[in-house]
């Protein structure tokens, strides 16, 4: 269901944790922001006491190795933004200043649930400003090997149709279809954790990644079994996490979507690639307000690619 007015947080809220790749502690402060502000990161803790503002949109993506990064290393960047962005998008948060004193959004428990709880703890405040949506007008599809991702017209809201097919029998084939609403995201998607294979850990460590990964924040798949003593939160937690990542990736249009997203064996790389394809031609989309009045499209769209933190795109 579409909401016609922009929303921000009812009060500031803070979280603290470690970066999944750096293993370093980081403080995150979410501040209410005025209408039209969007989601903007304030990167603090940079050398010489500098701060930097980075807009959370498609044109800000600058690096994609193992996570989504906005900004750049030379002037300040923020990595692993996917889960936080998914929570903002799914709960209908349009305007927030995200103050962060480290290079990564904290991984917390590996899902979006802690971010949802933080947002719910302060509630939302709506403004008089009209919310604008990106409405897909024509089907757009990208493929890489057996993997595919597409965006299809859907004037009623945002639907996800996600399928995965891993050779590993612990995961296998899974598919989930749902119309995204705040409540469905809270109860069916937000708690799904990132996952990885024990066999990949040493290689990642040697490359300087996953230094903060643990059984507290990652579903670890070993030789024929789940290593985490508590097991899975859902029988199909893996495809649910792929949905979570897709919600976060696709939010980088800067607008809530009126579309159906359909994917097979996709991941961050193709999620962002399908955005690039969509936004490459103004005939593919329109920007509409709550009254469905057509607005002008983007003047310029940057490019960027993103890949999942642990699980490969292609299976």
UniProtKB/TrEMBL annotation:
Which InterPro entries does the UniProt record give? Answer: Ribosomal_Su5_D2-typ_SF, UDP-acyl_GlcNac_deAcase, UDP-acyl_GlcNac_deAcase_C, UDP-acyl_N-AcGlcN_deAcase_N
Does this UniProt record's set of keywords contain Kinase? no
Which pathway does it operate in?
Answer: Glycolipid biosynthesis; lipid IV(A) biosynthesis; lipid IV(A) from (3R)-3-hydroxytetradecanoyl-[acyl-carrier-protein] and UDP-N-acetyl-alpha-D-glucosamine: step 2/6
Provide the Gene Ontology terms for cellular component. Answer: membrane
Give the Enzyme Commission number: 3.5.1.108
Name the cofactor(s): Zn(2+)
GO molecular function terms listed in the Swiss-Prot or TrEMBL record? metal ion binding; UDP-3-O-acyl-N-acetylglucosamine deacetylase activity
Positions binding Zn(2+) in this chain are: 83, 241, 245
Q: What keywords are assigned to this protein?
A: Hydrolase, Lipid A biosynthesis, Lipid biosynthesis, Lipid metabolism, Metal-binding, Zinc
GO process annotations (BP): lipid A biosynthetic process
The UniProt entry annotates the active site at 268
Reaction catalysed by this enzyme? a UDP-3-O-[(3R)-3-hydroxyacyl]-N-acetyl-alpha-D-glucosamine + H2O = a UDP-3-O-[(3R)-3-hydroxyacyl]-alpha-D-glucosamine + acetate
Q: Which family does it belong to?
A: Belongs to the LpxC family.
Physiological role: Catalyzes the hydrolysis of UDP-3-O-myristoyl-N-acetylglucosamine to form UDP-3-O-myristoylglucosamine and acetate, the committed step in lipid A biosynthesis.
Protein name stated in the entry: UDP-3-O-acyl-N-acetylglucosamine deacetylase
Q: Which organism is it from?
A: Enterovirga rhinocerotis
């Amino acid at each position: 269901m579409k909401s016609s007015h922009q929303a921000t947080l009812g009060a500031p809220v803070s979280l603290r944790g470690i970066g999944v790749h750096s293993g370093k502690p980081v403080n995150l402060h979410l501040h209410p922001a005025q209408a039209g502000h969007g989601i903007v990161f304030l990167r603090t803790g940079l050398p010489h006491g500098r701060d930097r503002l980075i807009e959370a949109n498609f044109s800000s993506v600058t690096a994609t190795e193992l996570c989504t990064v906005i900004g750049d290393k030379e002037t300040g960047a923020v990595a692993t933004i996917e889960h936080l962005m998914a929570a903002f998008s799914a709960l209908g948060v349009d305007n927030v200043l995200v103050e962060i004193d480290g290079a990564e959004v904290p991984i917390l428990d590996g899902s979006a649930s802690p971010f949802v709880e933080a947002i719910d703890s302060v509630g939302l405040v709506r403004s008089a400003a009209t919310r604008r949506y990106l409405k897909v007008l024509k089907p757009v599809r990208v493929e890489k090997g057996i993997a595919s991702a597409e965006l299809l017209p859907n004037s009623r809201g945002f639907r996800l149709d996600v399928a995965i097919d891993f050779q590993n029998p612990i995961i296998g084939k899974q598919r989930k279809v749902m119309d995204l609403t705040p409540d469905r995201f809270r109860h069916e998607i937000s708690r799904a954790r990132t996952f990885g294979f024990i066999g990949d850990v040493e290689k990642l460590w040697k490359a300087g990644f996953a230094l903060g990964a643990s059984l507290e924040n990652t579903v670890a798949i070993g030789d024929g079994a789940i290593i985490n003593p508590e097991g899975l939160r859902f029988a199909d937690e893996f495809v649910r996490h792929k949905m979570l990542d897709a919600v976060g990736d696709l939010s980088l249009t800067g607008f809530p979507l009126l579309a159906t997203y359909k994917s097979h064996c996709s991941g961050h790389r193709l999620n962002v690639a399908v955005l690039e394809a969509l936004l490459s031609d103004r005939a593919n989309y329109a920007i509409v307000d709550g009254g469905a009045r057509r607005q002008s499209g983007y003047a310029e769209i940057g490019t960027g690619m993103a890949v999942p933190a642990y699980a490969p795109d292609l299976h």
